[in-house]
Amino acid sequence: MEEGRIPKTTLLAFFFIFLFSTSFSTPLQQHQTLIVVPFSNPPTLKPVDDLSWSESQTSESLDFQNTLSLPLQHIDALSVNETSESLFHLRLQRDELRVKTLTSLTTTTAGGGGGHHRNGNNNATRANAKDFSSSIVSGLPQGSGEYFTRIGVGTPPKYSYMVLDTGSDIVWLQCAPCRKCYSQTDPIFDPKNSQSFSGVPCGSPLCRKLDVSGCNTQRKSCLYQVNYGDGSFTVGEYATETLTFRGTKVGNVGFGCGHDNEGLFVGAAGLLGLGRGGLSFPTQTGRRFGNKFSYCLVDRSSISSKASAIVFGESSIPRSAVFTPMVTNPKLNTFYYLDLVGVSVGGTRVPGISSTLFRLDAAGNGGVIIDSGTSVTRLTRPAYEALRDAFRSGAAELKRAPGFSLFDTCFDLSGKTEVKVPTVVMHFGRGADVSLPASNYLIPINSNGVFCFAFAGTTSGLSIIGNIQQQGFRIVFDNAGSRIGFAPRGCA
């Protein structure tokens, strides 16, 4: 072979590599269609029996070998004399309080929304290891969270609505006797009527896991307290109880039996903490259900017949999911951190948005969490401004409208049935690209056809991926694999 000449076989190899990389790569889509559906009247009430089930329906009368699902019901349908606009205003007010709560938690690493940040062992019954699921209901008017599920508590089970919250660890509900209890939809749980209720002794390992605990010296039972950033709190006895999900019973779950519950809690009986901490429901039941769960949140602004479920166990992971690693905050183990490395608008990476803007430092500051209770995604200010400017440029042909509340980029789409809008893709670590449907980032704010770009900036350093951007995806929390997954069209 002559010196300096490349063999023909090598040239052919280079040619085919180039051909494959240019011809078969999939470029990001530049535009997609937004169906313009302004606010209408709140959904009419549908039978709530779809979200409930008889207490006589046990595992003998239901088949739990397969994943179960029930239709999702908007809590809007249960609201009386409320308009869509008023509900939306309340939603944004709650959202602001929620973000303050989460932000304060990450700066103080104590108290607040989750209240429990220590690793713990499984405390759940391990017999009859099967997957189980429960329906989810959107909870717009509630102050403590946005989505709810119906769970049986005690033996025999008494069914109640409970908030789903990935930003909290503790499981709690209102209990009789009430010193101060807020109004809830179902009768207040009375532990005296349950055969499986058991108080936790003072000084026991379970009691010691609480960040804020005390002791009832007369009964020698453990006491708990959880304070939330908006001033709400719950105080009472810490105990174990059996929870029932559509007939599947989960025994010995540590929970707070609240006798003094004050603040913004309305409607639901309590809270099902889904965080990463040692006292959360997924952690307590992890060994039984594979340390994994997933949920899908439907479009809460539309009247939809799509079903949704929260699923625990192997069935919670769809094959279409793409995964990114969980990031661990050494100072706070409640939240689900993940690695956001960039955002594309109109098929092009937004300049100025890189992983350095979302880095979690050694002190536990910064980072990005995904949260079921926050509605609008917050990005640290430089990243948000770069994203907003890129979207404004790509949507220059749309008629602008004045800003609204926390939204500074709005459009007047009145008289239109559909419009072309730039695509938005969120890029996560390990190549997990999540392409958002148009309705996940342009949302109606009134009945006059005004839509706003559903992102906002924050100066706190903590970025939060909210549930508007999550809607329609099945979000997988695989604690066993230390990863978070996204599956499009996951509510089917």
UniProtKB/TrEMBL annotation:
Region (Disordered): 106-127
Keywords, in A-Z order: Aspartyl protease, Hydrolase, Protease, Signal
Origin: domain of life: Eukaryota
Gene Ontology BP term (one): proteolysis
GO molecular function: aspartic-type endopeptidase activity
Active site: 165, 371
Every Peptidase A1 domain range: 147-487
InterPro entries: Aspartic_peptidase_A1 (IPR001461), Aspartic_peptidase_AS (IPR001969), CND41-like (IPR033873), PEPTIDASE_A1 (IPR033121), Peptidase_aspartic_dom_sf (IPR021109), TAXi_C (IPR032799), TAXi_N (IPR032861)
Extent of the signal sequence: 1-25
CDD domains (alphabetical): cnd41_like
Alphabetical list of SUPFAM superfamilies matching this protein: Acid proteases
Protein family (similarity comment): Belongs to the peptidase A1 family.
Name recorded for this polypeptide: Aspartyl protease family protein
Organism: Thalictrum thalictroides (Rue-anemone)
